[in-house]
Amino acid sequence: MTETTKGGFKSAAELPDDLHSYLGILLLSLADNKRILGIRYSDWILGAPSVEAGIACSAMAQDEWGHGRIIYSMLKDFGHDPAALEHERTSEEYRSSELLDCDVSSWPELLALNFLWDTAISVQVEMLVESCFEPIHYKVRKLLEEERFHFDHGSGWTSRLMTSNEGKDALGKAFAAAWNACLRWFGPENDPLIEALVEGGIVSTGADCARTRWLNRVGPTVGDLGLVYTEKSEWVSEPVPDWNGWSPVRRRASEGGPDADSLARARGDRNRSLL
């Protein structure tokens, strides 16, 4: 490890070329996921099962949009124009998960995003808390404080629906459909991008350790859905990740992107002339 790494990188300009590129890829994926996830939450402000749940969706949407903007602003130091990132890209240029490409049709499907996907994103952000890239580790702490509410909301509603056969069946289908994308989000074992960031002190742990942390976070709540089991005090995924079509740059399935309506909303197309 270099002397610079021991003391921390105070700006993106100090990063070696490979770390500069890899961290930029990871940050853009985080920002895009938060931006589109915020849209998915906003879709349920009026459609949630209760007024309180709708208010929670509104709060979570605002959190995600705020987090996304913070990360987009950081990407200026990685060669990007934040305004262009937010308003000018095509669907195929987005790095958000395939889980977010289209709107969700049921509350259990939204809970799959809230409890599984949102938690997976937060686990990846946690890997940056002790980063030697100083501009980021101060900012992610605040993001994670706000994300605690998201986890509590998803966990609470998941547990609530698990008490009935109908709710458990609906959750089982929705969570199973989202499961593989969540497993893949952290990257394959020995993912070159993540391994380089670990070696450089940018993130604290590798893909498999992050995936295990996520499984231990959600496992106790979803244990009865047939997706996980315990082994030596750790939660283990029953299905193994399917890497077919995985793009290490987009951090998702290689093809596709947000649908036309989601893209227009993310870019602010309807009122772009007012910018």
Summarize the structure in words.
By secondary structure, the chain is mainly α. 59% of the residues lie in helices and 4% in strands. It contains 10 helices and 4 strands. The chain has a two-stranded antiparallel sheet with strand order 1-2. Strands 3-4 form a two-stranded antiparallel ribbon. It is globular.
Brief characterization of the structure:
With 275 residues, the chain is mainly alpha-helical. It has ten helices and four strands; from the N terminus they run αααααααααββββα.
CATH-defined architecture:
Up-down Bundle
In sequence order, what are the helices and strands, one letter per element? HHHHHHHHHEEEEH
Helix content: 55-70%
CATH class: Mainly Alpha
| Overall spatial form | globular
What proportion strand? under 5%
When the domains are counted, the total is 1
Structural descriptors:
disordered N terminus, about 5% strand, two-stranded antiparallel ribbon, Ferritin, about 280 residues, single chain, mainly alpha
